[in-house]
Structures are given as structure tokens and as C-alpha cells.
Amino acid sequence: MTGLEHFDAVVIGSGFGGAVSGYRLAEAGLSVVVLERGKAYPPGSFPRNPADLGRNFWDPSAGLHGMFNIWSFRGLEAVVSSGLGGGSLIYANVLLRKDEHWFVHHDPFDGGYETWPISRADLDPHYDNVETMLNAQRFPFESDGYGIAKTKAMRDAADGLGLEWQLPPLAVTFHNKDRPPVPGEPLADREFPNLHGLPRQTCRLCGECDIGCNYGAKNTLDHNYLSAAKHEGATIRTRCEVRVIRPGENGGYVVQYVEHDPMNEGRHTETKQLPLVTVTCDRLVLGAGTFGSTYLLLRNRSAFPSISRALGTRFCGNGDLLGLMVETKTGRPGHERPRRLNGAEGPVITSAIRIPDGSDPDGQGRGFYIEDAGFPEFAGWLVEMTQAGSRASRVLRFAVKRLLAKLTNDPRSDWGAAISEALGGAELSVSSLPLLGMGRDVPDGNMRLNDGRLDVDWTTESSQPFFDRVEQTMRDITEYLGGSFQPNLLSYLDRVISVHPLGGAPMADNPADGVVDAYGEMFGYPELYVVDGSAMPGPVGANPALTIAAFADRAMDHAIEHASAGRA
Amino acid sequence: MSGETRIRFTEEMKGHVAFGIDDPEEGRDAGAADRTSFMFHLTIETSDIDRFYHEPEHEATARGWIECDQLGGRLPVSQGVFNLFVAGDTPRQREMRYRLFFTDGVGNPLTFVGVKKVEDHKGFDVWTDTSTLYSRVLQGHVTAENEEMAAVVAAGVLRILKRDFAKQVTTFRASGPSLRAKARGFLMFLGLFGGRLFEVYIAAPTEEEGP
Ligand SMILES: Cc1cc2nc3c(=O)[nH]c(=O)nc-3n(C[C@H](O)[C@H](O)[C@H](O)COP(=O)(O)OP(=O)(O)OC[C@H]3O[C@@H](n4cnc5c(N)ncnc54)[C@H](O)[C@@H]3O)c2cc1C
Ligand code: SF4
Fold first, then answer.
1. Distances from the Cα of A295 to the Cα of A25, A244, B73, angstroms
2. pLDDT, tens digit, for every residue of A4-51?
3. Does ligand 2 have an atom closer than 6 angstroms to the CB of A218?
4. Domain of B69?
5. Could you tell me if residue B50 is inside a domain?
6. Is this prediction's ipTM beyond 0.90?
7. A203 C-alpha vs ligand 2 centroid, how far in Å?
8. Contact A432, A483 (CB under 8 A)
9. Is B188 among the domain residues?
10. Which residues of A sit within 8 Å Cβ distance of B?
């Protein structure tokens, strides 16, 4: 094919898998283009007023080019992000490694088949690389001014209940190198220029991590991997949504995308009517996320007739379960007073309690983590969306739009007030705190196309004993803190909210069980890599982003070796 | 008025296919297990039923659509042909072949090829066998000569239900030089699609006595 733009590598998506891959390939001297469907968000650009937040959704056909992409399926609601940096823009910064023993092989528990073709030892060097690039720091809980109430409460409860507690590494800058932590201190430059070209500062403990950090304190991928990729010569294109992929006639791959013109923001513009731009490449890297990559592969399946029949399998929500502690108390019996947890203070997540797994020496059943999810605005917002969604319509987005229309039509309405009203009053007061549980649920969901749309049939059913245990531990923590517990807000519908969807193009050591191999390379399609959450053959257990990034880093070692062998 | 008998009818067949499997029967089972449905709705028209019957190169046209969620929903057939081949040693063993060009939801060209056996011998389950279409979806728009080389995207088996066949009969239209010709066209149609082998009674002179 002549006349078409050609790259050594096309990377689709700029989340954890995509950003790491884009950087690694560019650094290795390959010509790279990163295609990201969403917009770039420099520090200071994340919307805060209700009207703008109300438009901050991804549904380009409906004129919405925003950051939150909500999916609603039979057994779960899922939230992912659209924008330069993918999930890092809205994630809670937790960088935990997958537990050594949780890389299970053919899990006999509860009938859930799960096999990981890689081990902790395979990933450890890559975990190190990613932590360095993301400048991981633990929340400086012991430092003056950082001993915040929610973190202390979690530590106290863990102590009291004899549970393992830690301050996990976070992708947040609390302190400059060799400096004590100070909120709002200007950040030192990195070894590469920042692609936004704007100043950043240390964490100000504002608790807004999940709606985008306006201070640049979060080490989102745009500030590190993507800036470094650009510095190494990678081309980065935002607002470019890939629709078509196929093997080229003479090797390599063909990629076609549409451009979401800012002019179309706020206007209905059917994505499928937009003109396609074609580029070609020698190697193709899918980093469009669990939904993005699997959807792309399912839609383009007939161009990949040899793709494994495992395509679409092994979906799970990483065991996500959201609970809420309300009216926690402190003080002697008979003299209790509300415990001030101040959920809005500090980064969204600061600490983690770990419950070991049956595969660990000291555990039983399926292991999990419980973290403080100190983001009242966001939690409340999510909850309200979901309740409205399940009551009124299967398609959550419409409910969200309606809710937001309601909020935004009333100029006096204040975001926080609207949410607490939606929650029935004082529930999200200073003495309440959401808890986020996650762990090893059963990856038995299937993703498929239904009437052209993505459909997921995963339900909580086979994972019920797991969810019961997570909930019980949350109850224990709540009780220890003198509060009352509100379980998974969707439990009456047997539904959960997941912010960690995984699977769909699982890795395996053979093409019968998986779509890609242990290096993310697709069986039957050399130099086609899947490097995002979709390649996970089961739950990571801990928050998955670091594992996805490390997996991508390892995959790119392999890709670069391949590329240089090809050239030699 | 010309001497040919034209016939036209609408046919709908449904079943399961599976991706990544080449064999239609295996594909049917795997496709049923993972609920991958496939159907087509075709209006088949031939300008001359006699030539259609006797000359394999005389093709009937097929217009309509294919529906398969996994390929992108309802997909129009851009070009479709349908013909009758002698497939065995005797004219009683015949094959009906469907070849439908279409594109999937993102624009990849595909070809549906289906084969139905039409036979007449003892022990042959007339209804079951003549209502079974062994089907494959191939990559590209491929002609019969290139079929061997084409990659198989999916395979499975489509059926026509008796109830749907009754509906199909009501869509039958014939035009011809005489009432008798039209009636004969109708019988040929019934024979081909209904499983009653007309040839024994009406069309081909038989080299042995019919059943
Ligand atoms: C509220 C929230 C909090 C979270 N907190 C944490 C946490 O603390 N720790 C943690 O480890 N994980 C957390 N996660 C999960 C984490 O964000 C995801 O696991 C991670 O982002 C997945 O990485 P990925 O590379 O698979 O895909 P993503 O990060 O989702 O990136 C995919 C990218 O591809 C783009 N894309 C999709 N389709 C196309 C297309 N067709 N063309 C072009 N581009 C496309 C998307 O816009 C997106 O930018 C959180 C998630 C949410 C929603
Ligand atoms: S708490 Fe505020 S300043 Fe700190 S990382 Fe989160 S959003 Fe940024």
C-alpha cells in the first residue's frame, strides 16, 4: 500500500498498557504513533462545576467527549476513562503488586478455572521499572499534617481486628526528592519535558483524585510515560478512535480511525458516519483497555479468522465491591460521639487491609483487599447514578444524563448537597466513609457482541461466597469503628460496580485457553500485542494498574527483541 | 411471452455457527453452546427453472440479508447466487449451493457458502437432509474456484423449520407460458425445497424405478 502513512508501530490507547508500550517502542528507536480516542487534560483543566461535570462523559455519538465512560451490563456497572493517560486520569493512584501466590494455576476453588502463564518473579523487574517511572510514594502518614482521620481509623480497625494493614505505594508526589512532604510545593522537573508544558505541585490532600488532579500532583501517565514517549519521538494523537484493524496484505497491520472534532462536542454526530483515516504499521499494540480492546477484536473478528476461540472469555470485575460505613463513633461506651473520618481529606485511597487467600500459607478461600475510598463526592455520585440507572433504565448513561440535567438546570444546586440529598440525607457526613473491596472473584464472564453493542454476561453468582466474605470483613471494620454498614448499594439487584474490569483477550500458554501468549503476542498473529487489562486471565486481586503496566513493559522487551531480530 | 418459467420465493434459514472452526457440524455444536446465532433471509429468483435444474452454470439470484450479532447485526447481501449441481454418480444426488457476498459490521468483505444435499434413496431422511444447510463464512468475496484457499471465519449448520417452510411456500410466485408450466415450476420448487424429490415423478427421466 503506497501513499498511506506508515509507522513501525501503532499503539491504540494511552492507558497503562498503551502508555508504557508507546514509550518503550519509541525509546527503542521505532517510529510510533499512539492513538487515543479521548482528549488531553493538562493540570487545571479537569472540570469542577456541576454543569461541566455533567458533560464529562464519553458518548461521542451523543456529542459527549468527556472523561467518564460508563458501561452497564446485566451483572455489573463499570467505569473506565477516556482521555490521554486512560484510567490513570481518574484512578486512585494505588500501585500494588499482584500477590506472589495469586498467580494461580488451575484454581480448584468454586469451579473457577484460572491459570496464569506468568509469575511474580517474571514481573518483579518490570514492577520496579514502572514504580520508578511513576515515582511511587507512600502516603506520609507519620509526617506532620498528614496524620489524617480516615487513615488512622483504618489502621486502628486493622490493629483491633488483627488484620494486615499497609500504606501502599501511590502514584502521587507528596514530596520532592530529598525534601520533606509539603502540600503545594512546585515539582522538580523530570529528565524529559512535560508534554503539557505546565507547572505541577505536590499533593494538596484535596481528595479529588477520581475526578482528575488539577494540581498535577498525581503522576498520571501523561506526565511520565507519555511525556517520555513524546520526547523519544513518538507521535501522540488524541481524539482519534480506532474502529477497524486488520492484517495487511503484505504483512503488518492496517488501522483505521475516526477523528472526534472538537466542533462536534455538544452535537449529535454518529461515530459510524465519520470518515476513516488509514495508517499502516509493522506491529500493532492494543492498549484500549478491557472493553476497548476486546470490543475492537470482536467487531473485527472476521479479519482475524485464526484468532483463538477464547476471545471474549475470562471477564471479571476484579472482585470490586463498594460498601459504606456510616455514623461511625468514638469514645467510651455511653459517651460516644461521632467519629470524624473526613473522607474528603487526603488522596482518595491511602491505606489497604489485606485478607490472605487459600493459596497463601496462612489464608483460606479467595483473598482480597479493603481500602479507604475517601471520596464522598465521587462515591455519592456513582451511587446515585447507579441507583437511578437500575431503577429507570438498563442503559445507565441515560439516567446519568437525566440526573445531571436535573442538577445542572438548577443554578443554585450545589454538587455536594445534591448528592447527599440523593443519598437520603446525612449519610455522607464527616462520620461516614466508603470502603472499596477487591480481590479474587471468579473470572467466568463472557464478552460478546449483541446487536452491535458489547455485552457481558458476568454475574456475582459464582463469586457469591467471595463477596459475602468481603462484605463480612467490611462489616467487622465498620462495627469496630462503631458505625453501621450499608452493603454494596446494588446488592439487592445482585449487581456490583466495578472500576477494574479485566479479561476478554486473556493470556495463556496455549491458543485453546488464551488469545495472547505470556508476552501479550496474539496466537496466530505475529507482532500483534494486547497489553492492557483485557489480557489478564483472571482477577489481579489488588488494584490492577501496576500489574497491567508491568505486563506491558515485559511484553515490549519481547516486541523490541522481535523487531531487532527482524532488522538484523 | 417467452417460454421460460420463472420462479421466485423467499427463504429463511436459521442455526448456529462458531468462529475459529472449519467443520460445519462441529461449528453447529460449538455455536449452540456459545449461543452464536446466524440466519439469512433471501429472495431467490430464477429466470428459467428448467435450465436452472439442468445446467449448474445457470444460477438463480439471491437477494436479502444475513443476520449475525457477532458479525455486526443485520447485513445486506450485496450479491448472491444459488445453483444446483450434480454431486454424485446419479442425477438423484444433487447439491444446492448458496454463495452470498456481504460485508461485516466494520466493512470486511465476506462470503457465505452453504451446501444442501438433495438425494433420493432408501434410508435417506428426506425432510431432515434437504432442510439442512452446511455453512461456512469465508474471508473475502470468493468465487467457487478460490474457495479452497480462502480462510474460514466461521462454520455451522442452518436449518429450515417445517413451520417456516410453510411460510416459504406462501411466498412462491411463478410466471410462465402456461398454467401447466407454472404448476410444474411449483412442483419443482416443492421438490427442491420441501424435500419431496420431484425429479422422480416429474423431471428427469429415471434410469430405474422410483420408490
Ligand atoms: C475511579 C477509579 C479508580 C481506580 N483506582 C485504581 C487504583 O487506585 N489502582 C489501580 O491499580 N487501578 C485503579 N483503577 C483501575 C485502572 O484505572 C485500570 O485498571 C487501568 O486504567 C486499566 O489500564 P488499561 O491499560 O487496561 O486501560 P485504560 O487505562 O482504560 O486505557 C485504555 C485507553 O484506551 C482508550 N481507547 C479505548 N478504545 C479506544 C479506541 N477504539 N481507539 C483509541 N483509543 C481507545 C481509552 O480512552 C483509554 O484512554 C481505577 C479505576 C477507576 C475508574
Ligand atoms: S488529593 Fe488532590 S492534590 Fe492530591 S493527588 Fe489527589 S487530586 Fe491531586
1. 24, 11, 14
2. 999 999 999 999 999 999 999 999 999 999 999 999 999 999 988 767
3. yes
4. 8-163+170-201
5. yes
6. no
7. 5
8. yes
9. yes
10. 243-244, 246, 298-303, 305-309, 311, 446, 448-452
